[in-house]
Structure formats: structure tokens, C-alpha cells
Amino acid sequence: MNQEEIKNIDNTNATKAYINEIRDKIIDKQARKLIEDLKWIELKDVSPYKSDLFPTVITGKGEKILLIHGFDSCFLEYRRITPFLKKNNKLIIPDLYGFGFCPRSSGNKYGFKYLMKHLNSVLNYYSKHQSIGVIGASMGGALALELARQNPKKVNKLLLLSPAGLAGKNPKIPWPFNHLGAFFLRQPLVRKSLCRQAFADPTNSVGPAEEQIASIHLKVPGWQSSLADFASNGGVSNCGLPKPNQPLKIILGKYDRIIPKNEKEETRRTYKSNIEIAKNSGHLPHLEEPKLVAEAWKEF
Q1: Alpha carbons 248 and 243: distance in angstroms, whole number
Q2: Whether the Cβ atoms of residue 160 and residue 300 lie closer than 8 Å to each other
Q3: Which one of 114, 116, 123, 243 has the lowest number of neighbouring Cβ atoms within 10 Å?
């Protein structure tokens, strides 16, 4: 085993150690419960290092649903909707490649095609001979659309929650501005402001528990470098078309202040017959109205 492989094993172990360190410090009870179902799996062809194990929550029984979180988030984003869905479904909630608690080994690259490579590997790992449903939130909605287009026989239906990245084109941010942007994004006041902006009623909905989870993954080794590399590759954008063939529903938060106005309008024009409005939500209907979202999934 060479020094590079040893370093990457240490990197994965450091990520696991960090999760064990924070388990009992998490304020939100539903988040603490969800982390109990965290598994570490080996995914072939995602990373050149076999030592890289990828965090995925597996919980519930029944028909399978793959849940895809949003930008700079983690599996804990689905903590409030999990109790509603797991009664009749087996939930698969991975951390996206280069996000959340995923190991960031030296030499790995990050961007849209790498995200899709990871998600395809997760889908192949869990779908086997049975097609599954997919729920995607924010940027995860754009990724869900692309995953469905690439896998018409493995994905049977889609629910997108305030999807981001369906329209427009993000610029590729060069060095050193990509690192400056990531550095800015990790500042406590910036994190707090973005967390509040994501909720429809931040005064009553955002407290220490929400702010903690919004920043809990920032100390994972390699967080800034992977985010900077993601930005230098242009992030995720312009994924709205072509429409996939699978049944699809979109839930938009009435008070969403995260998605740009022009992108929301384009999404409405493209998918108008598939859209439902969550009247008490901002950018996070799965956190603000989890029962509504769970019932929408069950009904369609």
C-alpha cells in the first residue's frame, strides 16, 4: 500500500470519527434518530480508491425511494419527512459526491458528471431488478431529472421539491475566486443568513437546531476544496429539459427566496401541469410541510 492510499484511508476514517464525535451533540432529535441508520458502502468506479466508503442512510420497509439532498447539504436534510415515508417505503438517502459527510480523497474531481456517476452507482447498487422512485430537493431536483433521463427503466416516478438548476447556465468560477467563494460560504454569519432565508417564517422556524445542521458538515476534511472544484466546473444548471418520460410532480414553496425569479418562471412554464404549491413553505417544503410532501408522494 502506497502513501497516497494510506492518506485516503486516514481521510475516510477521520470523517467517520467526526460523525461519532458529533452524534450526541446534535440538538435535533429527528436528526439524531436518522444518523443511527447511517451505513458506509463501497461503490465501484466512483473513486479510484477502494478505501473510500460512502455514507448512505437506509431505513424503513417497502417500495424503495432514493432521496437526493440539495447543494452544500447532507442526508440530515430529510430528517422531518423520514418518519412519514418510512412506514411504507424503504428509504435510501446518500450524501452526494463531494458534499455532506462524503470522504474527499486527494486527486478526486468534483462537478456535475461526477455527481451523476455517483448517483448512477447508488441506483445500480440498490435498484437491482426493481425500479425505484426518486425525490430530489433543490439542486437534488435537477440531479433527479437527469438520473431519470439516464435510467428510464430503473426510475419509476419523480417528486421534485423546490428544484434548483432547471434553467439558466452557471459560469465556471476560476481559481482563486472559487476558493474565495467557498471561504465566504463557510462564515458563521453567512451560514446563519442563508439558513434563515431558506425558510418561509425564519422567526418561528429557525433556531439553534436548524443552524447547527446547516453547518454540521463543514468540518469534514476537504469541504472547501471539493466545493471550490465543484464551482470551477460550473455546478449544476440547465437541467430542466428534455422532460423525462416517468410520472413527475413538482412542489414549489410559495415563499421561496432562494431560487431566482427567472428560474422559477421558467420552471412554471415548462412543468405547469405538474406543479403544486406548498402554501406555508419557503425553499424547504420537506422540512416545513413534511406531511404534505409525504402525502403528495403517496397520492401520485
Answers
A1: 9
A2: no
A3: 243
Domain count, the chain: 1
Give residue 95's domain range.
3-299
What is the CATH classification number for the domain harbouring 99?
A: 3.40.50.1820
pLDDT by 10s per residue, the chain, length 300: 444 444 454 567 888 899 999 999 999 999 999 999 999 998 877 776 666 889 999 999 999 999 999 999 999 999 999 999 999 999 999 999 999 999 888 788 999 999 999 999 999 999 888 899 999 999 999 999 999 999 999 999 999 999 999 999 899 999 999 999 999 999 999 999 999 999 999 999 999 999 999 999 999 999 999 999 999 999 999 999 999 999 999 999 999 999 999 999 999 999 999 999 999 999 999 999 999 999 999 998
Q: How many helices (H) and strands (E) would you count in the chain?
A: 13, 8
Q: Kindly report the pTM of this predicted structure.
A: 0.96
Q: Which three cell numbers stand for residue 3?
A: 502513501
Helices (H), the chain: 3-22, 29-35, 82-85, 112-127, 139-150, 177-185, 188-198, 202-205, 208-215, 223-232, 261-271, 285-288, 290-299
Give the number of residues written for the chain: 300
State the CB neighbour count (10 A cutoff) for residue 272: 9
- The four Cα atoms 275, 276, 281, 284 give a dihedral, to 10 degrees, of -50
